[in-house]
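User: If only I could read backbone structure tokens as easily as an amino acid sequence. Underneath my words sits a plain record pairing an amino acid chain with its backbone structure tokens. This is the protein in question:
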Amino acid sequence: MTANALAAGEGQEAAALLERTRETVNPELRRTVESLPGSMRRVAMYHFGWEDEEGRPTDGGAGKAIRPALVLASAQALGGPLAGDPAGRGVVRAAVAVELAHNFTLLHDDVIDKDVRRRGRPTAWTVFGIPDAIITGDAVMALALRLFSEDPHPAAAAASARLAACVIELCAGQQADCAFESRPDVALDECLTMATAKTGALLGCACALGALYAGAGPEEVEAMDAFGREAGLAFQLIDDLIGIWGDPGHTGKPAGADLLARKKSLPVVAALTSGTRAGAELADLYAGPMAGDDVRAAARAVERAGGRDWAQAHAADRMGRAVQELSRAVPDLAAAGGLLALAEFVTRRTR
């Protein structure tokens, strides 16, 4: 089998796994969101894609479901009950909690980054206002923790504590990301640490929660967390590349949106710290306001300075590390096919 055929097969497996996850998780996710009081429920239902701004049902979805899929696949890889079994209800609730925590960050990030589009339509804050978007994000996070407080599963308390710690780390990563925007010099190691906290922490937490609900021991739980963190950093590297070169028709955001906002994403910082002429040109562009021609020039400068190649190579390296961590928890990687397919999917995606 050729490498392209193998990648296509893994992509199909990941797509099927994500679809099964949505079918399993979305009903519980929706029931949980619908428990919010009226005004917050309306904002949340719009954000998740289930209603339009007038409260009318839509055909939209609640996202790719990568994080809840990691919870379910991790539990299965470690011999936990399948999500469809009665004994697997706890792991489904854990998957819902992770997706709620993720969307808490999205609601807040859209406000912080002033993003006006998400999933192909206006962001919640542009429709309902900044206060309602922030407050709804807070309530969505509270729903995640409430799920654990009401769960009789023996892993629920440890899972709740781990998710809370993860969210604190995630917020620290977001705070660092915001601080970088006003700093002229940001080291690449700083940027990697920020990305690990902002993105890797939640993917690691998702994998660790799956392990907890499978009854795994401390060493296996930590190895799964490390797997998710490394895969999460690879995910962020690819996401940063999409933020510069992604197709607006697929991303739902303007071309070069991250450059327009002068974000210190990983490819950008790699270019700025490259010591090249193109890196210096990029620094000059970032020093002033960006317009359409400037965004295109900045994208070319990032590429000429090696930022694009570095990000692609580093994503592959991080995925190699992720597989090493996974093998500590699941020595027979054949049992972790779902996790490997998901990891391959997030590092080969183009949108």
